[in-house]
């Protein structure tokens, strides 16, 4: 299509009459939104949530955020339960425990996310964490096993992939290590979540011959945004006050859902240190991403990621929530124009390596690794933002209205002390300001 | 800022920009579902950033919020079989030819939603709102030559994007 054709189409669009029913749709949409703002004096976030949830198209993103939030142990309202607090105290005493987890997703939540995973998790306060995961390929039903070891002392994660006879080592920095320690304590985080929300007691029941008592929450505050969409249920042994089973459900309209179950808990089981030390068989080869670091979670890493995103698209991501950022990156990557800077660099590297003695396979792996290294920082703004939220630093992000050309506008800010804020501007420069100074900056 | 004050500003802006939003968002989407979604995102964006909109720059911000809302609505459409609205095909015309034109128009709209911010605004102002370059340069706060350059670059970007989907 040439420029003349495009201009012709654009001019035609410009001349289009707006259908009468569209006037009506606009009026109704606008009035409904306005009415919802005035009906009740709710917190701003909840009103906005309702607007979001009225649109079926946005349910996936909203609920997916909650999904991640729950997995990440999102900080919630500080309202303590009674019996569940005792459960938490009991779990905190366990030094080693094991449980199984099954996650099933339907629909296309995030491209590439497997539809079924079964994981056996062993957590030792002393030695680290081991994940034994069976991932089912939805296309052919084939199951692939992967073993992952998180070793806090050596600050490394090692994954073994027996089917392909490959291994992958990833370094963890201190931030990641702290987060993973926290998030691997799943039962503890689960109970912490539920006791901070509105929950109902389901009464007694029997699971696998064990008398249990149930607790359930659908509290929007607990899930951060999705009032009707999320349900979390925890069943606790009435004798030991330890979890027996949990169920998590997120429905995202008709388009996607996630169902997670944890079960088969075993507490203070005997373990050997060697169980947490992976042995890489001699015939295993390194996966292409072997040796890479996890995406940075620091302020600088986030800024580098924002810069990369802007280089690719000419703008900043609209949202920094992990799932929404992942969706934006996925959409960005579908456009070859955005990926041009990457392909140019890789073609150059390939050309350089072709002049060496490297085999075609070695060149292919080197190019793949390079592409991963180049793209990796783009995730960091999401991780950094998550860290700020978890640490209750009240981050506010203006990616929807601030672009790279808005040098002096506040792009991201968070609280560093009672009256001090850290600000990242549109040109990605950084500064510290008082609340009063920040208010002036945000008025500009 | 107090809630009442926020509401007052929001209502004032909602009234002031209702015709603009109706016109621009419809021309950018050309599809009722996309339009409704883009409108909701725009209103949400305005409410979220209401304190920022209480300034002389409100128009520019709302422009940007609307374009960003449009991009978001289009992004949500990705993966939904890529179906475009066919309810606006003129049945008197040659069916094959008209359908092709409608799909082509939808592809142009989708490509606009993927343009960088300034290019997006420039193309909307020039063609969808039919502004002259003087008005565009005022709204974009740049020279007339720069305004022309933004439009020209946007056209080139559209051409390239459409070439890859053709």
Would you write up a description of this structure?
The complex is a heterodimer of chains A (444) and B (166). Chain A is α+β, with helices and mostly antiparallel strands and 444 residues long. Chain A has two domains: 64-286, Lipoprotein localisation LolA/LolB/LppX (outer membrane lipoprotein receptor (LolB), chain A); 299-327 and 373-443, no CATH class. Chain A has 14 helices and 16 strands. Chain A has helices spanning 3-15, 20-39, 44-54, 59-71, 83-93, 174-184, 186-195, 220-223, 299-313, 322-333, 340-354, 360-375, 380-390, 435-443, and strands at residues 96-107, 116-124, 128-136, 143-151, 156-161, 166-171, 200-207, 210-217, 230-237, 243-252, 256-267, 285-286, 396-397, 410-417, 420-425, 430-434. In chain A, the strands form two sheets. In chain A, strands 7-8-9-10-11-1-2-3-4-5-6-12 form a twelve-stranded mixed beta sheet. Chain A has a four-stranded antiparallel beta sheet with strand order 13-14-15-16, with helices on one face. The two termini of chain A are 42 Å apart. Mean pLDDT of chain A is 76; it is low at 39-82 and 224-228. By secondary structure, chain B is mainly α. Chain B folds into two domains: 1-93; 115-166. Chain B has helices at 3-29, 32-48, 50-53, 58-77, 95-113, 117-128, 133-140, 144-165. Residues 79-95 of chain B have low confidence and may be disordered. The interface between A and B is large, with 54 and 67 residues.
Brief descriptors of the model:
heterodimer, A: 444 residues, alpha+beta, outer membrane lipoprotein receptor (LolB), chain A, B: 166 residues, mainly alpha, 2 domains
């Amino acid at each position: 299509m040439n420029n003349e054709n495009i201009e012709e189409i654009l001019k035609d669009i410009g001349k289009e009459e707006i259908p009468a029913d569209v006037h009506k749709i606009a009026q109704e949409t606008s009035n409904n939104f306005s009415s919802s703002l005035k009906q009740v004096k709710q917190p701003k976030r909840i009103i906005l949530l309702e607007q979001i949830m009225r649109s079926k198209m946005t349910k996936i993103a909203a609920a997916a955020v909650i999904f991640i939030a729950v997995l990440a142990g999102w900080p919630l309202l500080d309202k303590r339960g009674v019996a569940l607090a005792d459960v938490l105290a009991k779990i905190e005493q366990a030094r080693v425990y094991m449980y199984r987890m099954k996650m099933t997703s339907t629909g296309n939540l995030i491209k590439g996310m497997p539809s079924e995973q079964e994981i056996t998790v062993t957590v030792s306060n002393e030695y680290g964490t081991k994940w034994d995961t069976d991932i089912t390929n939805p296309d052919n039903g084939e199951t692939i096993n992967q073993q992952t070891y998180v070793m806090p002392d050596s600050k490394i994660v090692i994954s073994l992939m027996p089917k392909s006879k490959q291994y992958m080592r990833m370094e963890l920095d201190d931030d990641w290590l702290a987060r993973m320690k926290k998030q691997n304590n799943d039962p503890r985080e689960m109970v912490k979540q539920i006791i901070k929300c509105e929950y109902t007691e389901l009464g007694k029941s029997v699971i696998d011959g064990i008398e249990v008592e149930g607790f359930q929450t659908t509290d929007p505050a607990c899930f951060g945004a999705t009032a009707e969409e999320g349900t979390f249920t925890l069943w606790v042994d009435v004798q030991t006050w330890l979890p027996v089973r949990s169920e998590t459900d997120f429905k995202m309209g008709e388009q996607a859902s996630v169902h997670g179950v944890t079960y088969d808990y075993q507490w203070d089981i005997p373990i050997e240190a060697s169980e947490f030390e992976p042995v890489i068989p001699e015939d295993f080869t390194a996966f292409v991403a072997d040796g890479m670091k996890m995406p940075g979670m620091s302020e600088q890493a986030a800024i580098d990621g924002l810069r990369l995103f802007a280089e690719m698209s000419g703008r900043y991501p609209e949202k920094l929530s992990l799932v929404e950022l992942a969706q934006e990156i996925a959409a960005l990557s579908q456009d070859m124009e955005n990926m041009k800077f990457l392909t140019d660099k890789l073609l150059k590297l390939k050309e350089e390596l072709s002049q060496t003695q490297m085999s075609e396979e070695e060149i292919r792996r080197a190019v793949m690794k390079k592409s991963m290294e180049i793209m990796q920082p783009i995730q960091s703004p999401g991780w950094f933002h998550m860290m700020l939220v978890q640490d209750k630093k009240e981050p506010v992000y203006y990616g929807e209205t601030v672009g790279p050309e808005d040098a002096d506008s506040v792009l991201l800010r968070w609280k560093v002390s009672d009256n001090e804020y850290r600000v990242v501007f549109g040109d990605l420069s950084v500064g510290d300001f008082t609340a009063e100074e920040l208010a002036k900056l945000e008025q500009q | 800022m107090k809630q009442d004050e926020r509401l007052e500003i929001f209502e004032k802006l909602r009234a002031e920009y209702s015709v603009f939003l109706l016109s621009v968002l419809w021309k950018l989407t050309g599809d009722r579902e996309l339009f409704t979604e883009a409108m909701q995102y725009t209103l949400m964006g305005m409410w979220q950033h209401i304190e920022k909109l209480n300034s002389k720059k409100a128009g520019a911000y709302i422009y940007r919020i609307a374009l960003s809302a449009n991009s978001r609505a289009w992004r949500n459409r990705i993966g939904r079989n890529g179906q475009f609205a066919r309810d606006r095909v003129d049945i008197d015309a040659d069916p094959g030819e008209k359908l092709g034109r409608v799909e082509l128009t939808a592809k142009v709209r989708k490509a606009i939603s993927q343009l960088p911010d300034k290019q997006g605004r420039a193309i909307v102002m020039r063609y969808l709102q039919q502004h002259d370059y003087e008005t565009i340069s005022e709204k974009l706060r740049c020279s007339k030559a720069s305004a022309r350059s933004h439009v020209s670059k946007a056209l080139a970007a559209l051409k390239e994007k459409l070439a890859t989907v053709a």
